[in-house]
Write a structure and sequence with these properties.
The complex is a heterodimer of chains A (192) and B (188).
Chain A (H helix, E strand, L loop, with lengths): L6 H11 L5 H13 L1 H17 L7 H6 L12 H31 L30 H6 L10 H12 L25
Chain B lengths: L1 H13 L2 H9 L3 H21 L6 H14 L10 H22 L25 H11 L3 H12 L4 H8 L3 H20 L1
Helix pairs in contact in B: 2-3, 3-4, 3-5, 3-7, 4-5, 5-8, 6-9, 7-8, 7-9, 8-9
Classes of the chains: A mainly alpha (192), B mainly alpha (188).
């Protein structure tokens, strides 16, 4: 059995026997096959092969369908959004705490209270009452960054508000405020 | 050709694949039956062309269960049938991998000894048909898959490439090599 030299048409013969050609292409291929004995032979062979291969059938549709579960629409998950918000909060909060601790350590290492008057005769240990008082917390974002553990209890609306508040939050507090981490209680006399 | 017309008529009556998927998602279980009825035999033929001789129906069932369970992942970029073939092929390959891990020699590779007797022979009484199926059975596995999809299902090379996991050009080469081999076998 030889091959038709028109490879383009020969390539389309399987789609011809499966009736999958566009009408204009089909007309062109039909016209060629009418005048080409080799292609007529190949079309006959393809039809016979197709019929043989398609004789395999008899799937039990009922059995297959009975195993298919009912459709369950995917749940709209806010988990990703919540997680992103929580991560952002932790990052900002962690940075703030780290800065506060670092400044507190630096101040203690220098032996000087950042908020206390310096100079000869001043003793921070002797003046615990001079430690600055903590400013009242009014900003919810600040409250959370200071360690409020209730982040995961917030609803979407509260998280949105929180994110908006974060825009206004100072990641690096000024040295004049929020010295809670700097406060070191004086060691009682007689202890190590 | 008659079955193609019947299939086209039936599609016009019952709706396109996309319509049936929408209907199934809205709770119409009959739409699933129509989809399975429309594609199950083609999936079975494809699974057979992959060299699966036993449990074809189980593989077909698993294919549909997997497909319906992840129907939202079907974007309609390809034909539903091509997507089903892709799932079936993955299932067969996964099954072979796990069997191989258990030490069973079930993997069929190109170049392996080919089967002289196809189990389908028993189902086919006609001698000419038996010869043709025998010729197809002697193709390499990849040739057999490509040839089955091209001739049995009339799929384009693009669709075949998606289903078989190859390129369009390679699918074309496999088809023509398969056709040449079959002609030679039938001329003997």
């Amino acid at each position: 059995m030889t091959d038709c030299p028109d490879g383009a048409v020969r390539d389309l013969l399987p789609e011809l026997v499966n009736d999958r050609l566009a009408p204009d292409v089909r007309r062109r291929v039909d016209a060629h096959v009418r005048d080409c004995a080799v292609c007529q032979q190949e079309v006959e062979l393809l039809r016979a092969l197709r019929a043989s291969m398609r004789s395999v059938s008899g799937m039990d549709v009922g059995r297959i369908v009975s195993a298919i579960p009912a459709y369950r629409a995917p749940r709209r998950s806010w988990g990703g959004w919540r997680a992103a918000a929580a991560i952002m909060l932790l990052a900002v909060g962690g940075t703030s705490v780290a800065v506060l601790q670092r400044e507190g350590t630096a101040a203690r290492d220098g032996g000087v209270w950042a908020g206390a008057p310096s100079g000869p005769g001043t003793d921070p240990i002797a003046q615990p009452s001079r430690a600055p008082t903590l400013p009242p917390i009014q900003n919810p974002a600040r409250e959370l960054t200071l360690g409020n553990p209730a982040i995961d209890e917030l609803n979407d609306r509260e998280l949105s508000t929180l994110l908006a508040d974060l825009e206004t939050l100072q990641a690096f507090p000024s040295p004049d405020e929020d010295r809670s981490a700097d406060v070191v209680a004086p060691a009682p006399a007689g202890t190590d | 050709m008659t079955d193609d017309r019947d299939r086209a008529d039936s599609r016009a009556d019952q709706g396109t694949d996309d319509e049936l998927i929408r209907r199934w998602k809205s709770g119409e279980q009959r739409a699933a039956s129509l989809l399975v009825g429309r594609h199950a035999n083609a999936v079975a033929r494809f699974v057979t062309s992959l060299g699966v001789l036993d449990d074809v129906e189980d593989v077909v069932q698993d294919t549909f269960v997997r497909a319906f369970a992840s129907i939202d992942g079907f974007r309609g970029d390809s034909q539903l049938r091509t997507w089903l073939f892709t799932i079936a092929r993955r299932l067969v390959l996964d099954s072979r991998r796990s069997e191989r891990r258990r030490g069973e020699q079930v993997e069929v590779q190109d170049g392996d000894a080919r089967t002289d007797v196809d189990p389908l022979d028993a189902m086919v009484a006609d001698e000419a048909e038996r010869r043709m199926l025998g010729a197809v059975a002697r193709l390499t596995p990849t040739q057999r898959q490509v040839f089955g999809l091209r001739v049995g299902e009339g799929m384009s090379y693009r669709e075949i490439a998606d289903a078989v996991g190859t390129t369009e050009g390679a699918a074309r080469v496999h088809y023509h090599n398969a056709m040449r081999a079959i002609k030679e076998l039938l001329d003997d």
